Amino acid sequence: MKAPIQETILSAPVTTSHSSDRSDAGHSPIQSPGKVKLFQCFASRAIQDLMNHPQPVEDLQSHLHAAIYWLKRAHDCSPDDGVSWGYSLKGAWRTSYRETSGYIAETFFDLAKYTQDIDAWQRAIAVSRWLVEIQDADGSIANTRYGQEGIVFDTGQVLQGLVRAYEETQDTDFLQAAEAAADWLVRVADETGRWTRNTHNGIPHVYNSRVAWILLWLNSICPDADRERVARANLDWAVSQQHQGWFEQCAFVLDVAPFTHTIAYAIRGLLEAGFLTNDQIYLQSAIEGADAVLQHVREDGFIPGQIDTKGQPAGSYCCLTGNCQMAIIWLKLYQQSGKAAYYQAAERSLRYVMSCQDIHTRDLNIRGGIKGSHPIWGAYTRLSYPNWATKFFIDALLLLARVQP
């Protein structure tokens, strides 16, 4: 096993080459490459993964800075102030993704806070204002790929960005937008308070515990009995779906083993809700989930990309996004308990992601970015660099820097 990390990774801010020209009014998108260059990029990644040639793991600061640069590039490449879905064989730099732009705003705020990155602050404000602009009149957030109706999960993630923007700025525009989103989340809940409609694929999902957490976060600022009632109804249902650490109905579709990405969503929602309310039932459920995944961390940090409800691996690839998300959970539990196994699992899982991150390629479209899967043809966001993979990687490294022993 590698020696424990004993270095500080927070230092000078990272800016893109033209970030000083950026204004809140908008920016020019980066031109995407031609189809030949795009194919060559992903073909070379696939060959590299097929040959099992991991990238060398360097100092954490280098990996963090490369990831920050890529995330800012994803922001710059869109024609508006949202953050591009990411870079993919399915369309190079894709259009802005509302859902993940919501919680990426919080990452930019964190970069401003912990690295004194003024450029990141300006980006956080620009993204947050864009979220207000694209919010539907009823307070919801839709994913236009699936229609014009609001979606519970997407609305919850945008709510996260709006709440953080209000906390940072005290701008009431952000608070009004946040309350409108929260009120919509209450209205679309069923008679039991659960989100059984306006959901992805029209089915309830345990990972909406993450939405419940954000609803409780807003409720801590602007108390409202209905918001708390709905949040707790969904958290209580999530707990009821857990058996020996694993959750039923935690996947995007029924009867499919969930990705570690959605498993981590479910655990994180319960964990943060437990911290906010000091509810031991939610905290214990999160701990059981985190401990269950802990058993699947290999010595090199690999975690199976899908794990079924019996706790059996259901994929031979790694969902790198899930690795990063689980690292955040384990680091938060390490903060709470001091249990070394949590820190060790987080460190190993992040080192694995770093070994899959290319920080030296001349192709700026992928330099520093995190693939959805390793190998790149794995089932989770196949042949793509989704923005949220890099977002959670940055979040995890920022947290690691603050809690390392």
**Which residues form runs of ≥5 with pLDDT under 50?**
1-8, 17-28
State the total count of DSSP E strands.
7
CATH fold category name: Glycosyltransferase
| SSE pattern | HHEEHHHHHHEEHHEHHEEH
Structural class: mainly alpha
Q: Report the top-level CATH class.
A: Mainly Alpha
For the record, the CATH architecture stands as Alpha/alpha barrel
**Shape from CA axes?**
globular
The whole-number mean of residue pLDDT values reads 92
Summarize the amount of helix as a percent range: 40-55%
Main β-sheet, spatial strand arrangement: 2-1-7
Radius of gyration: 20 Å
| Strand residue content | under 5%
| End-to-end Cα distance | 17 Å
Domains (count): 1
Tally of alpha and pi helices: 13
Question: Sheet with the most strands?
Answer: 3 strands, antiparallel
Write a compact overview of the structure shown:
Helix content is 53%, strand content 4%. The chain is mostly helical. The chain has a 3-stranded antiparallel beta sheet with strand order 2-1-7. A two-stranded antiparallel ribbon has the order 3-4.
Describe this structure in words.
- By secondary structure, the protein is mainly alpha-helical.
- The chain has a single domain, classed as Glycosyltransferase.
- The chain has 13 helices and seven strands.
- The chain has a three-stranded antiparallel beta sheet with strand order 2-1-7. A two-stranded antiparallel sheet has the order 3-4.
- Strand 1 and strand 2 form a beta hairpin.
- Helix 9 runs parallel beside helix 11.
- The N terminus is likely disordered.
